[in-house]
Amino acid sequence: EGCDPRYVVTTGGGPGIMEAANRGAAEVKGGRSVGLGISLPFEQGVNKYVSEELAFEFHYFFMRKYWFMYLAQAVVVLPGGFGTLDELFEMLTLMQTRKIARPIPTVLYGKEYWNAVLNLDKLLEWGTISEKDLSLFTLCNSPDEAFDYLTDALVALEKG
After folding, report:
1. pLDDT surpasses 90 at 135
2. Using CB atoms within 10 A of its CB, is residue 22 exposed (0-12), middle (13-18) or buried (19+)?
3. Radius of gyration, alpha carbons of the chain
4. Alpha-carbon distance 150 to 152, whole Å?
5. How many CB atoms lie within 10 A of CB 156?
6. How far apart are CA 130 and CA 92, in angstroms?
7. Which residues contact 49 (CB under 8 A, 6 or more apart)?
8. Which of 148, 11, 26 is nearest to 80 (CA)?
9. Of 51, 56, 54, whose CA–CA distance to 28 is shortest?
10. pLDDT tens digit sequence for 97-109
11. CA–CA separation, 75 and 119 (whole Å)
12. DSSP annotation of 93
């Protein structure tokens, strides 16, 4: 079975889980993927599974974040470090403040990790976010759970 040409996997183009996502897309008939790399002293460019014509390298993080969000139809965020948190909070802030006006279904994958790293109850208690801000994303623990959530959300958005 081939892929839906309306959707293209986009990652930071790096190793590990990003490479796995790019490889998964490359192995599907007609699958392509985008790699939005960043110039860093310890990075060697995008991984070999990124479609050659869709491999980009950015100098500035803000430009990379812009292009991640500009065309995103959905986002899956896996456990990561400062860069992951930076990109996650930038995206959530843009959605919270409606600078991104369209809904973007967002999955934070790995409930144990995200519940340990993000103390959302304290953010609510301190009044730094509102209860409705928690609807900007969902927590998922399995590929099937994430897939079902994203598929349902994208179908609902398509129907209007």
Report:
1. yes
2. buried
3. 16
4. 5
5. 11
6. 13
7. 19, 22, 23, 25, 26, 33
8. 11
9. 51
10. 999 989 999 999 9
11. 21
12. H
